[in-house]
Structure formats: structure tokens, C-alpha cells
Amino acid sequence: MLEQVKENISQGEIIEDLKNIIAETFRINTDQVEPETKLFDGGLSLNSIQMIELTISIESFYQKEFHPDILVEDNFRNIAVLSAVIQRCFFE
To answer: For tag attachment on the chain, is the N or C end more exposed, with fewer CB atoms within 10 Å?
Structure first.
């Protein structure tokens, strides 16, 4: 799943990456997943263990690590928010 590390990436590209990461990590069809799809309460309804799995998959995919202060529920509320967090943390 590792892709070549990118220096600059748009939020739209990150959203597509996230859809692919989610599909591969959880073996689900993400055709209906939109930027506003919630990761908790409704939407994908991921639990805390799955959020850890998703975090690890994202870090592995981008070959970068989140700072622990970033790993709060509010930053994972939906795909659009998470993609903005990834862009800010990994590509700015």
C-alpha cells in the first residue's frame, strides 16, 4: 500500500487517498464515502481500535507520523477534517 512520498498534495488527493486507505484497511466499499462522511457516530461508525488501525495505516501510507497532540477525536470527526489535518501536519 505504500506509495511514493509526495512533497505537495491537494486536499482532494488526500481525500481519495483516505478512501483507498479505509477500503484497504477495513475491506469495505468506499463508493458512497464522501468528504463529510463521519468516522464515528454514524457514517463509518469506527470504534477506538479501528481509529488506531486507521492512524497506523495513514502513517504507513504517507511514511510520516502524527504528533501525539493531533490524535484527538475532533481531528477524526469526518474525512474532510482528517484530510485537512493530514495536509497541515504532513505537507505544510
So the answer is: C
